[in-house]
TrEMBL record:
Localization terms from the record: Nucleus
Cofactor: pyridoxal 5'-phosphate
Residues in TAFII28-like protein domain copies: 661-746
Keyword check for Transcription regulation: yes
Name this polypeptide is given: cysteine desulfurase
Enzyme Commission code(s) on record: 2.8.1.7
Family: Belongs to the TAF11 family.
Organism, scientific name: Sesamum angolense
GO molecular function: cysteine desulfurase activity; protein heterodimerization activity; pyridoxal phosphate binding
Cellular component, GO annotation: nucleus
Record keyword Transferase present: yes
Length: 763
C-alpha cells in the first residue's frame, strides 16, 4: 500500500527560508526553495498488469471516498475526466494548512505568514519540476485551466492579434479553449480556423499543418481529447507552428494527470492544467508560459500583489508570475496541489501511464464487445495509444438515461452530455454521449462492474416492445400488469424532473388514465425539446387536475396553442419511446374510468386511425341562425373556461375545444385574441371572436397536454415561431430545440417579433 500521508505536514529540514518579506516591495522577494524539498520519491514498484498486485489495487486504499457504498452497492467512480478523487495526503495537507499555519502570503513578517509563503512557493516549484519547466517563475497559479486560457487570451491575444491574423484550433477543443478566442477575435478582427477529424476520429494534424501560414499567430490544441481519447503529437505541431512564427497553447488538462509531460521537450509556448483533475483540490490550476512571453504580457487583473508601485495617475507592475496573481491567492489549495504532485511523483508518472494504457485497452475492448455500442475515437494499436476514457452511445438509448440508470441502480458514476465539447458532438452527428473515464486508482474489477451494469441497462430498455402509435394504445382494451415502483433520487442539475399523466379517449365509451412519475430523464427525447421551451420542466400531460401533484406555475401551454400542436405532432413517437424505455424510474398505474359522458358523435378524429394523430379537425359547424340563447348556453357548457386562464375542467372534450379553436386562429385573429387577453378577456368580445371563427363547432382530439412553467412570452411570438418551424420541417423526426431557436432568431431579425420582449428561452 502506498502511504503518502504527512508529506507536507511538517516543514522539511531541507527547506530553507532565504529571506523575509520586504513590506515595501513584497513581490520582489521571490522565495527560493531548495530543490531537495521537491525532489520526487523513488517510483513505486507495481505490477503493470491488471491483477491483484496492480497499481489500482495498491492505491485504492488511499482514497477515502472510494470506500463507501451507495444504495447498498460499492461505488464505482468512472468520471475522472471531469474530476479526480483526492488521496488522504492531499486532504491532510489542506487541513493542516488551516489548522497550523493559516496566514496570507508575501505580506507578513511573522512566522505563520513566512511559513505559508514558503509552502505556497514550494508548491510552485513542485509544479515547475513536475512538468520540467526551466524556472518556477514560468508557473502562474490561476483558479483553473479555464482562467489560465482566458489569461493568455486577454493578456497575450489582445496585445498581439490584429485584423486578419489567424488562430488555428481543432473541432475537438473544450469550450474553454474556444470561447475566449471567440471573444478576442470579435475585438481584434482575428480569424478562427478549425481543423476537422480524420476517418479514425482524431484531429487531422496533416490538415492542421496545411492550414499554417504566415498569417497564423497562434495554435490552440489539446494534448489529449476529453471525448475521443486521442493523444496528439504536440512536439510535431509545435515545430510546424514555430516554422511559420506562430505560438502554441496546449490544453494539457487530460494529459498532465496521466502521463509524463515535459514542456521543454514539447517546446510549448503556453500550457494549462487543472489541479482537480490531478488528485488535487478544486479552485486552483496553473499556466505555464515561457518567461520571455510572460514578461512581455500586460496584467490580466488589477489589484494587490501584481503591482510594483501605485501612484494616483498610474501604476507600475511586478514581474511574472506576481503580475498575473492579483489579490490573495488560493493558498491552501496551492499547498494541497503540491501534496498531490508529491503523491503522483511517489508513484511515478510513467508507472501511472503504463498501467492506464493497459486499463484503457481493457475498457475499450470490453465496451466494443457490448452489442449496439458505438465508441468514439481511434482504435488502439501498437502505434496508436488511447487515453483511459471512452465516450460512447448505445443504439436507441439516450446517454443521460444510461448514466441515470447506472447511477441509481448500480452506483456506477459516469458522465453524460456533450462534455463541454458541443462542436465536436455536432461534428460526430450526435447531441450527446456517455463517457467512462479512468484513473490509476481504478481496477479491472471496476471496468467489469461497469460493463455488467451497462449490459443490464441495455437489457432493461430493450425489454419493452415499442408502442407504434398512441392510437393502438388507445384501442387496446387489455389492462397491462402493474409495475412495482421503487423510489429513486432526483438530480435537479439535470433540470428534467417530470410528472406525467396521460388521459386518452378510445373510440368507444370508455376511457383510461395512464399516470407515470419520472425522476431523471427517462423521456429524454421529449426533454431535449421541452427543457428548452419551458422555464420550469415540471410537465403534466393530461387533463385531470387530480393527477397534478404540484401547483401549476406561471402560464399554461393552452395559451400557446401552436406549440401545443407542435408537441402533439411529435408526441406519438415520444410517448411510445418513453413508455417503452423504463419501468423502474416510473410509477405506472392504469385505471378504468367511468364512461365518458362527453363523447362527441360528430368528431372526425378517429382514435384508431394513426393518420389523424397529432392533428385535429374542426367538426361541422352548427346552423348560424339557430336560437341565440341555446347557442350561448351550448357554448358556455362546452367551453366552461375563461380565456387567459384556460384551466382544464377535467373534461377532455371541453379542453380540447379551446385548444383547437386557438390553434386555428389566423394572424389577424391572434392579434385580436392578444388584445382581448391583455384587456382581461371580456366574455362578450371573446364569444364574438370565437363565433366568427368556428360558429358552434364541436371539437375532439385524442389527447391533450397541459404544461406548467412556460417561459413568459407573448402568444403571438411563440405561435409565429411555431408556425415557421412547422412549415419548414421536411421530415417527421423529433422537433429539436435548435429548430425553435433558429426560427425565433430569424423572425427577430426580420422584425416580425417586437424587440421589447426577449423571452428567457431564446436569449
Amino acid at each position: 500500500m502506498i502511504t503518502m500521508e504527512g508529506l507536507v505536514l511538517k516543514l522539511p529540514s531541507s527547506l530553507r527560508i532565504v529571506g523575509r518579506p520586504n513590506h515595501n516591495h513584497p513581490h520582489h522577494v521571490f522565495r527560493s526553495v531548495s530543490l531537495a524539498s521537491s525532489s520526487a520519491p523513488a517510483p513505486l514498484s507495481t505490477d503493470p498488469k491488471l491483477g491483484p498486485g496492480s497499481l489500482g489495487h495498491l492505491t485504492r486504499p488511499d482514497f477515502p471516498i472510494l470506500h463507501q457504498e451507495l444504495n447498498g452497492k460499492k461505488l464505482v467512480y468512472l468520471d475522472n475526466a471531469a474530476t479526480s478523487q483526492k488521496p488522504t495526503a492531499v486532504l491532510n495537507a489542506l487541513q493542516n494548512y488551516y489548522e497550523t499555519y493559516n496566514s496570507n502570503v508575501h505580506r507578513g513578517i511573522h512566522y505563520l505568514s513566512a511559513k505559508a509563503t514558503d509552502e505556497y512557493e514550494s508548491a510552485r516549484q513542485k509544479v515547475a519540476n513536475f512538468i520540467n519547466a526551466s524556472q518556477c517563475r514560468e508557473i502562474v497559479f490561476t483558479r483553473n485551466a479555464t482562467e489560465a486560457i482566458n489569461l493568455v487570451a486577454y493578456s497575450w491575444g489582445l496585445a498581439n492579434l490584429k485584423k486578419g491574423d489567424e488562430v488555428v484550433l481543432t473541432v475537438a477543443e473544450h469550450h474553454s479553449a474556444i470561447v475566449p478566442w471567440q471573444f478576442v477575435a470579435q475585438r481584434t478582427g482575428a480569424v478562427l480556423k478549425f481543423v476537422s477529424l480524420t476517418e479514425d476520429e482524431v484531429p487531422d494534424i496533416e490538415k492542421l499543418r496545411e492550414m499554417l501560414s504566415r498569417q497564423t499567430k497562434l495554435v490552440v490544441v489539446h494534448h489529449v481529447s476529453n471525448v475521443l481519447a486521442s493523444v496528439l503529437p504536440i512536439d510535431q505541431i509545435v515545430s510546424w507552428a514555430h516554422d511559420v512564427g506562430a505560438k502554441v497553447l496546449v490544453d494539457a488538462c487530460q494529459s498532465v494527470p496521466h502521463m509524463v509531460v515535459d514542456v521543454k521537450g514539447l517546446d510549448a509556448d503556453f500550457l494549462v492544467a487543472s489541479s482537480h483533475k490531478m488528485c488535487g483540490p478544486t479552485g486552483i490550476g496553473f499556466l505555464y508560459g515561457k518567461y520571455e512571453l510572460l514578461s512581455a504580457m500586460p496584467p490580466f487583473l488589477g489589484g494587490g500583489e501584481m503591482i510594483s508601485d501605485v501612484y494616483l495617475d498610474h501604476s507600475t507592475y511586478a514581474e511574472p508570475p506576481s503580475r498575473f496573481e492579483a489579490g490573495t491567492p488560493a493558498i491552501g489549495e496551492a499547498i494541497a496541489l503540491g501534496a498531490s504532485i508529491d503523491y503522483l511523483s511517489g508513484i511515478g508518472m510513467q508507472s501511472i501511464h503504463d498501467y492506464e494504457v493497459e486499463l484503457a485497452n481493457y475498457l475499450y475492448d470490453s465496451l466494443c464487445s457490448v452489442p449496439n455500442v458505438r465508441v468514439y475515437g481511434p482504435t488502439p494499436s501498437r502505434t496508436v495509444k488511447r487515453a483511459a476514457l471512452c465516450s460512447f452511445n448505445v443504439e436507441d438509448v439516450h446517454p443521460t438515461d444510461i448514466a441515470t440508470f447506472l447511477d441509481q441502480q448500480h452506483s456506477v458514476a459516469i458522465r453524460s452530455g456533450h462534455h463541454c465539447a458541443q462542436p465536436l458532438h455536432r461534428y460526430l452527428g450526435v447531441n450527446a454521449s456517455a463517457r467512462a473515464s479512468l484513473h490509476f486508482y481504478n481496477t479491472k474489477e471496476d471496468v467489469d462492474d461497469f460493463i455488467q451494469a451497462l449490459n443490464d441497462t441495455i437489457s432493461f430498455f430493450a425489454s419493452f416492445k415499442p408502442i407504434t402509435n398512441i392510437a393502438q394504445f388507445c384501442s387496446n382494451h387489455s389492462t397491462p400488469t402493474h409495475t412495482q415502483h421503487r423510489p429513486v433520487l432526483c438530480n435537479p442539475r439535470l433540470a428534467n424532473q417530470q410528472r406525467f399523466s396521460l388521459a386518452v379517449e378510445g373510440r368507444f365509451s370508455w376511457r383510461r388514465n395512464v399516470k407515470f412519475l419520472c425522476y431523471s430523464s427517462c423521456v429524454s427525447s421529449f426533454c431535449d425539446c421541452a427543457e428548452n421551451i419551458l422555464s420550469s420542466i415540471t410537465v403534466f400531460v393530461g387533463v385531470s387536475t387530480t393527477c397534478f401533484s404540484l401547483k401549476p406555475l406561471s402560464l399554461k401551454l393552452n395559451e400557446f396553442p401552436s406549440v401545443l400542436l407542435l408537441l402533439l405532432e411529435s408526441m406519438e413517437n415520444v410517448m411510445a419511446t418513453s413508455m417503452k424505455k423504463s419501468k423502474d424510474p416510473f410509477e405506472i398505474a392504469f385505471e378504468e374510468q367511468e364512461e365518458s359522458h362527453h363523447q362527441n358523435p360528430r368528431a372526425n378524429v378517429n382514435a384508431t386511425d394513426p393518420s389523424t394523430l397529432g392533428a385535429v379537425s374542426i367538426g361541422t359547424a352548427g346552423p348560424i341562425n339557430k336560437n341565440k340563447e341555446d347557442e350561448e348556453e351550448e357554448e358556455e357548457e362546452n367551453m366552461d373556461v375563461e380565456f387567459g386562464k384556460l384551466r382544464p375542467t377535467g373534461d377532455p372534450a371541453k379542453t380540447a375545444k379551446m385548444q383547437e379553436i386557438l390553434a386555428h386562429f389566423t394572424e389577424e385573429q391572434m392579434s385580436r385574441y392578444e388584445s382581448f387577453r391583455r384587456s382581461g378577456f371580456q366574455k362578450s368580445n371573446m364569444k364574438r371572436l370565437l363565433t366568427s371563427i368556428t360558429g358552434s363547432a364541436k371539437i375532439s382530439i385524442p389527447m391533450t397536454i397541459v404544461v406548467s412553467g412556460i417561459a413568459k412570452m407573448f402568444v403571438g411570438e411563440l405561435v409565429e415561431t411555431a408556425r415557421v418551424v412547422m412549415a419548414e420541417r421536411k421530415d417527421t423526426g423529433p422537433i429539436r430545440p435548435c429548430h425553435m431557436r433558429e426560427a425565433y432568431r430569424r423572425l427577430k431579425l426580420d422584425g416580425k417579433i417586437p424587440k421589447k420582449t426577449v423571452p428567457r428561452l431564446f436569449r
